[in-house]
Every structure is written in structure tokens, then in C-alpha cells.
Design goal:
Shape: elongated
Number of domains: 2
Oligomer: single chain
Structural class: mainly alpha
Number of helices: 15
Helix content: over 70%
Order of helices and strands: HHHHHHHHHHHHHHH
Largest sheet: none
Number of strands: 0
Length: 328
């Protein structure tokens, strides 16, 4: 094997390993934040609130803080595009700049192209250019989905417990603390509730403390929970009934999601079973009739047909995954 080929293969393996380690090295619950760092962040927010309160408008008018919160709410509703920055935040990888993620995609694609250029023809070389975006996006989406599932597994139980605590006569803060105490230590919901309560204890306003609940988790019901708490603080209302309906909705979504995954799981499994049969048949032909396999990759026409078949298989796998990717 040529030295350049060896170097290209080694560089490709290193790039893929580094990219996977960069995205998957952190636990889905996130890195632990020390109490000193958390309190320092809380003090900075409190100082900012006091500075904004000191620069308020005339008496009776809206303060800068409320105006800023309204602007943030408008931007949060209007900006629904899932950008790379948001996806990195939802994967708890916000310390990685978006340009670095895009650069990693290009580097992986370039190395895959250099490797395929040594052994394959134009068709697979073109396909290899998509290796970087496909691989890194898959790793990123997998991490986002793991955090979603980790949060979603405890969220309905937390809501039902929270509703029960409110009906017993506890206020919102006490009910949040009591409902979170019933969850496991590694629960993502418990961590978010503890952060919210810590912000309140440090003097951060209720709007900011509640509004920051689950801000780095991609879950559709978090915003409904946050808005229900904020509206109950501002205009009152029966919070327990609202959250009880939300808990039932989350339960239904879980049921539909599990049913949909079970429905498409058989189709996905059949695709991989067929690919396994094809690979076993190819291996059987190689041992029983070697020329049938060898000539496929040495003869010009057979080489073209074989690589076209590989491209069709890869396209079929990608298409099946896109069709069976359900959002409930």
C-alpha cells in the first residue's frame, strides 16, 4: 500500500474518532456546575437586574426589565428556526462555536474524499463529500434525542406530583421543591428545578428564573409549562387544572411516540436484515466462486456497476431513515 494511502486512512480514522469524542464525550445530564460558579452567575444576574431597575422610566411606566423580557418573549416565539447554534445548545455543547462544527464537517468530508479517491471512482467520491455533515449531524441529533428522552421520562411524573402538591395547599415554590425531591438524583428534570429554585434563592426575578427552566432542552412541552407558571403569577387562574391537562398531553405524546417507534422499527429492522443477507451472500460467493466477486471490482464495467450498487444502497438507507424519522 502506498504511503499516501496509509496516511490518508490514518488521518480519516483520527478525524472521525475526534469528531465523535467531541460530541459524545459529555454525559447527557451535562457537566456538573460548582456551587461557587453558580452563585457567581446568580450574583451577576442580580446586579444586572438592580442596574436595570435603577434606570427605569417614569413612575407607573414599564421598567427596562419588563420591556426586555417582552422583547425576549417575542423573539422566542418568532424565531423557530433550528440553527446550528440552537442545536449545539440543546445538545449541551454550546461551548463549541458553530463555525468550528461546520469546519469539522468539512474536514471529515475532505478526508473521506481523499480516502475514496485512492480506491474508488467518481460516484463514491461524490458520495463521500456528504460524509462529514451526515456523520456529525447524526451524532449531534443522537445526543439531543438522548437528552430529550432523559427529560421526557420524568416530566409527566413530575407534573402529576406538582399538581398534587398544589392541590394540598402548598405554594408554587414549595410544590416545585417537593415534586422534584421525589425524583432520582440523576434526573434531568430534578436538576432543572434545582437550578430554578437556586436562582430564586439568589434573588433573580421570578420571570427570569422560571423562563430559564429547561432552556437548553429540546422539548415541546417545556414552553407550555413555563408560560403556565408565568401566567399564574401575573393574572392568576387555576394552575393545577392547567398543568393536569398538560400532564395528560405529555402522556399521550409518549404513548403515540412509542407506538410510532414500534410501527417503524420493524421496517428499519427488515432493511438491516436484508443488508446482512446481501453481505453474507457476497462473502459466500467470495469463498465458493472468487472470480465472481473479484472481477466485479477489477473489470471496468463491473467496477462501475458495483459502485453504482453501493451508492444505491447508501441512498436507500438514508431515504428509509428520513421517511421513518417521526416527530410526535
Amino acid at each position: 500500500m502506498e504511503p499516501m494511502a496509509v496516511l490518508a486512512i490514518v488521518a480519516g480514522i483520527i478525524a472521525v474518532v475526534l469528531a465523535a469524542a467531541l460530541i459524545l464525550r459529555l454525559p447527557v445530564s451535562g457537566r456538573a456546575v460548582s456551587p461557587m460558579t453558580l452563585r457567581r452567575q446568580m450574583r451577576s444576574i442580580v446586579e444586572l437586574q438592580r442596574a436595570e431597575a435603577g434606570l427605569g422610566v417614569e413612575e407607573g411606566g414599564p421598567s427596562i426589565t419588563s420591556t426586555a423580557l417582552e422583547q425576549i418573549a417575542v423573539e422566542k416565539v418568532s424565531d423557530t428556526q433550528l440553527t446550528i447554534r440552537k442545536r449545539l445548545k440543546y445538545a449541551e455543547l454550546s461551548h463549541i462555536p458553530p463555525y468550528a462544527f461546520s469546519l469539522a464537517q468539512m474536514i471529515v468530508s475532505l478526508i473521506a474524499f481523499l480516502v475514496t479517491r485512492l480506491y474508488f471512482d467518481t460516484m463514491l467520491q461524490v458520495v463521500s463529500l456528504f460524509a462529514g455533515p451526515l456523520l456529525l449531524n447524526w451524532l449531534l441529533n443522537r445526543r439531543i434525542n438522548k437528552r430529550f428522552m432523559k427529560f421526557d421520562s420524568d416530566f409527566p411524573q413530575f407534573l402529576l406530583s406538582f399538581v398534587g402538591m398544589i392541590k394540598t395547599g402548598l405554594n408554587v415554590t414549595q410544590a416545585l421543591q417537593a415534586a422534584a425531591s421525589g425524583l432520582e438524583e440523576g434526573s434531568l428534570v430534578k436538576r432543572e428545578v434545582d437550578l430554578m429554585l437556586e436562582r430564586l434563592r439568589m434573588g433573580v426575578s421570578e420571570e427570569r428564573s422560571i423562563g430559564s427552566f429547561g432552556e437548553d432542552i429540546y422539548h415541546p412541552e417545556i414552553e407550555l409549562f413555563v408560560q403556565a407558571l408565568l401566567l399564574s403569577k401575573r393574572v392568576g387562574g387555576n394552575l393545577s387544572d392547567t398543568l393536569d391537562r398538560l400532564a395528560r398531553q405529555v402522556r399521550r405524546r409518549q404513548y403515540f411516540r412509542q407506538s410510532a417507534n414500534a410501527a417503524v422499527g420493524q421496517q428499519r429492522g427488515s432493511i438491516w436484515f436484508i443488508l446482512g443477507v446481501l453481505a453474507a451472500l457476497e462473502l459466500y460467493l467470495y469463498f465458493t466462486w472468487p472470480q465472481c466477486v473479484v472481477l466485479t471490482w477489477t473489470h471496468p464495467t463491473g467496477r462501475m456497476v458495483g459502485q453504482g450498487g453501493v451508492c444505491a444502497i447508501l441512498l436507500g438507507i438514508f431515504w428509509v431513515r428520513q421517511v421513518t424519522k417521526l416527530k410526535v
